[in-house]
Design goal:
423 residues, alpha+beta
Length: 423
Amino acid sequence: MFASWARRSVAILGLCAFFSVAGPRMGMAATSSCAARHAVVFVNQGYGSSQASITAIACATEDVRGLTPHQPIKVRLVDSSSLRAEAVAIRQRDVAAEPLTGTEMAFELLGALAPNQDLAAIRRSQYGGNTTAQYDIAGKTLYVRDNKPAYTPLDRAFIAHEFARALLDQNFNLANLTGPHNDSAGRNSDAQLAAEALVEGDAFTTMTNFAITTFSRQDILLLNQELQSGGSPPSDFPHDQIGFPSTQGTIFVKYLMQAAANGKKGTAARDAANLAINNAMRHPPGSTVEVLDPALYVQHHVSTATETVDAPQLGSGWSKVDSDVLGAFGIGDLFSQHAQKPAETAAAMQAGAAWQGDRWVVYKSGPDSLMIWKCRFTNIAGAQAYVRALSNYTEIRFHATLASQAPIAWHTTGYSLAVRAHG
């Protein structure tokens, strides 16, 4: 996966920030020493020059990441239109497997999604912009566009990114690592988002270190130019969720790598950094609060609470649709939407930072819907910040005037809100 709107800021940042961890610069010709590893196997023939380029990229990526596949990674070379169709099919399959009905209802009730917005369509847009390479976890195949037209620096970076995901899949099983997560109360998309941030942050970091160690200065300049020519995504909550793994995940991985490499130099620094990420793959962050504050993850200071919501007495006709966890990132980002003053953003961020656990449950009866959302925070100040942030957000989003502390009760035509504090 490569979210197109995240690629510019993260990749440019990475080209500068990870230089100290990467090894000495080497040209593409220097990667021939790893050709005997047979990193890839091509399932179709007739693309000789493309195969040579991809093999060199794969070998260099292995060296940078310090991982080798257990068996050669299958590569299928296709033209650009076939690659685009394959990427669309992969994303449609993945989104179709997500239970989005309840999530869409919850987002609408929270004001995070307009009634005319289609959450599935937004999620499917996640693969926009990458027309060079796509790794399919289900099929264990790396699809790569052939080199007509010739690969640009950005194309080579894309291939390294997707090959890195293939490496991670063989070594750490991405289907289990980034697939649906559950806790004892049900689905937990926050934990899933945290795991995907680790994986995507690793792939981004590997890609940028690949560029640093193999590209000429001219290639790096061209890469930055290509990255900066990309468009920006809409600035709203659903798109921020999609961009979170690449943007914040890269910062998270960078922190872990630099902490592990501290005091070391050269190959020792790179090996220590890669080992730290390997350990993280075996013990991934369990919540986005750890991704947002990597020191909590490193110090093992996070103790998340599994929240349960007691079934309410709603009468006949009501049925439960779904439940999930919004998480620290979700709370902070959602309540930052539409913020007009620094204090409003600060309250949202404080609430996210103090998050300990939450769960929402959506019920439906005909055209009517109801969401119960239970949140727990590590301290009273965080809970109070949550109430302020919710009040600020609701005032702006729904043109209401609310009290800034619980209890809160407010209603308007077709919509009502009640907030209560319990310890």
